[in-house]
Amino acid sequence: MKIECEVIQDIIPLYAEDIVSDESRKLIESHLKDCSDCQQELAAMQNEDEIPLDINSNGLKLVKEKLFKDKFKAVIFSILLTLIISITGINYLTKPSYLSYSKDSVTIVERANSELTVNFNQQVANYKVEKELAEDGLSFIYYISTWDSVWSQLTNNKPVEALLLNPDNENIISIYYVSANQTENQLLYGKDLAGNGGMITLPRLLLGGYVRLALLLTALFLVLLFIANKLKKGQRLIRYLLLTPISYIIATFCIKGWNTFSYAATRDFLTILLIAIPIYGVLFLSLDFYQQWKKRR
């Protein structure tokens, strides 16, 4: 009888799944009528199959939370990448392409009441006017620069309207046109204060200085990270701090390329800061994804 029970118990799992032949089923059912041990074995198997899945168990909750976090991070990562591409594209379309001087690009018209008006040709999309006080402390010197952009070429913007320089009857001693190719400023009106040597308006260099500062901070954080790895503490904080100067360097490259000279330094700097934020987010999440992947290995 013992041998028969062992044989029956070997095929009870098949019987429980209803995948035995009719002859085997009859044999098993005949045996089960008189064998309590095999009845208990079958009952145990059937009870295991009927155990409901607890979808509210702590283990499943943790899995669901982790899957949600991973999905949320992936969505944020995609949004940040889209922002980076969008800001880079908008900057390319709208960044000033400064125009060199030509006789018909800018003309000065003096009215009877000493008012001075600037007229621009159709190529000019926008302009910048700066003024400074002359040495006599009473008169002003004006500097005018103009530019085009890819966006204005694509959309055929309306011509720039004429500009009245001295609506309050300021005394203007000189007006210069500033070209962004490091050539001499062109006198448009008044007295030439530059003399025989000429005068050149140079681009701003501060963006390059900020990049050098970011490179120094990157090197400093790398040294601190090396020390932290040796001490086995503080690595996580230093890694995230390291991403800050790296983000600024990448942002500068996205906006300015390799040339950090700028005639519109304020605009470029603010755009660099704007795009550096999503770049930092992408680097932050990339580091987080890498650390998770490393743990799974």
Automatic annotation (TrEMBL):
Which keywords does the record carry? Answer: Membrane, Transmembrane, Transmembrane helix
Transmembrane annotation, as ranges: 74-93, 209-228, 240-258, 270-290
Keyword DNA-binding among record annotations: no
InterPro entries found in the cross-reference section: Anti_sigma_zinc_sf, Znf_put
* Domain Putative zinc-finger positions: 5-39
Q: Where is the secretion signal located?
A: none
Report whether Transmembrane helix shows up as a keyword of the record. yes
Q: What is the similarity comment for this entry? A: Belongs to the zinc-associated anti-sigma factor (ZAS) superfamily. Anti-sigma-W factor family.
By what name is this protein known? Anti-sigma-W factor RsiW
| Species this chain originates from | Candidatus Enterococcus avicola
